[in-house]
Design brief:
There is one protein chain. The chain has helices spanning 3-9, 30-36, 77-88, 103-115, 145-156, 190-203, 216-228, 247-255, 261-268, 273-293, 307-317; strands at residues 15-20, 46-49, 55-60, 66-71, 91-97, 120-124, 174-179, 207-212, 235-239, 298-302. α2 links the parallel β1 and β2. The protein is built from eleven helices and ten strands. The protein has one domain (3-317): TIM Barrel (Alpha-Beta Barrel). An eight-stranded parallel barrel has the order 1-2-5-6-7-8-9-10, surrounded by five helices. Strands 3-4 form a two-stranded antiparallel sheet. By secondary structure, the protein is of the alpha/beta class. Helices cover 40% and strands 18% of the residues. The structure holds flavin-adenine dinucleotide (FAD). Flavin-adenine dinucleotide (FAD) binds at residues 50-51, 53, 95, 97, 124-127, 144-146, 178, 184, 186-187, 193, 196, 209, 211, 238.
Length: 318
């Protein structure tokens, strides 16, 4: 079922959902099921599965030469989605990125998703490879999420890349895009970032999922700005509790966000990592309660393969 239909069927009651990463190459699917099982009692209507682009590794040969090899560490987004749908009978939402795909490969991937019965996709540009200083599009691939989105919208209208067939079957994807309450790190300012978010919605995005944030005022400001500018699609807050003191540094560095001083000071005052986890969970419980009051349609958690903190929060909030 489409995410927008899950939301409208809930008639204003907030839903719970979460995101996880596909297994590292060499791990079994069991790790995914172990990360999902503890959360199924809260009836998530959908589960997101991220997509990780290939990166480069260097293999040293006996003669000392280094070989550059393209390597995907977590290769199985689509199969992980299929396994989740098969085992739990919930909607799986694959993330689809621009990086690493030519337009033809994108189109073929979308046909696979449609045939698997996947109704929703979250379309993204994708992050830069670790080996690149900034995002490098694949030759003949899409450079921005809005271009990828347009491609999906075209297929939803029966228009394929090479228009090889009259009356081609229309896909029927419900399409999500990313939004940034604290702006995307490459944007010069919030207004420019917002202009491109609006462009994605005008192009046909059905819902927005936000980057994680720790200050609800930033989510509210984004929602208010969207509504004032005619963006009426659901805006799903993305959430992650702080679970270790290291994250005070790593989360701002990786996700380009602010941690409110009240939270950072409470964490710095903790005597143990166990206390840090409790502070992080308490903060998130409070955030979620407020978000429910603010009318957030879904509370969407970045579990990163660790379901326990999310479970404690959801138990307290739902
Ligand atoms: P875009 O919307 O294309 O925006 C990228 C930047 O370009 C922004 O600064 C924007 O303001 C600007 N911009 C947009 N359009 C234009 C234009 N036409 N001209 C000039 N500038 C423009 N990454 C992954 O690799 N895999 C994942 O599974 C994944 N999942 C994510 C899920 C969520 C909910 C979020 C919030 C992020 C996720 N990411 C993922 C990270 C995401 O790929 C990065 O943040 C990436 O850098 C930007 O992606 P985007 O879709 O927001 O890009």
């Amino acid at each position: 079922m489409k995410i927008v239909d899950h939301i409208s069927n809930a008639k204003g009651t907030p839903l719970f959902s979460f995101e996880l990463l596909p297994p590292i190459k060499g791990q079994s699917i069991k790790g995914i099921f172990d990360a999902i099982d503890p959360l199924m009692e809260f009836n998530p209507p959908f589960i997101d599965v991220t997509y990780l682009r290939e990166d480069y590794i260097y293999k040293q040969h006996p003669n000392g030469l280094l070989e550059k090899i393209a390597y995907r560490k977590r290769p199985s987004t689509v199969a992980t989605c299929a396994a989740i749908m098969n085992k739990y009978n919930v909607d799986a939402v694959p993330h689809l990125i621009c990086g690493g795909f030519t337009k033809d490969e994108t189109e073929n991937a979308l046909i696979d998703l449609q045939f698997l019965g996947i109704d929703n996709v979250l379309v993204l540009r994708g992050d830069a490879r670790k080996s690149d200083s900034s995002f490098v599009p694949t030759p003949d691939g899409h450079a921005y999420a809005s271009e990828l989105l347009q491609h999906v919208v075209d297929m939803n209208n029966g228009r394929y890349l090479h228009d090889y067939m009259e009356d081609a079957a229309k896909t029927d994807f419900c399409i999500g895009v990313a939004g940034y309450p604290e702006k995307h790190y490459e944007s010069p300012n919030l207004d420019t970032d917002f202009k491109y978010l609006k462009h994605k919605v005008d192009t046909g995005a059905d819902f927005i999922v936000t980057q994680m944030f720790f200050d609800n005022k930033k989510y509210k400001a984004l929602v208010d700005k969207c509504r004032a500018n005619g963006i009426n699609v659901p805006i799903i807050p993305g959430l992650k509790p702080i679970t270790s003191s290291k994250q005070l540094v790593s989360l701002p560095k990786i996700f380009h966000l602010d941690i409110p001083m009240e939270l950072s000071e409470a964490i710095q005052a903790c005597k143990s990592e166990k206390d840090v986890k409790e502070v992080g969970i308490e903060w998130m419980i409070h955030q979620c309660q407020e978000l429910k009051e603010m009318g957030a349609p879904v509370l969407h958690f970045y579990t990163m393969g660790n379901p326990e903190p999310t479970k404690k929060i959801v138990q307290a909030v739902f």
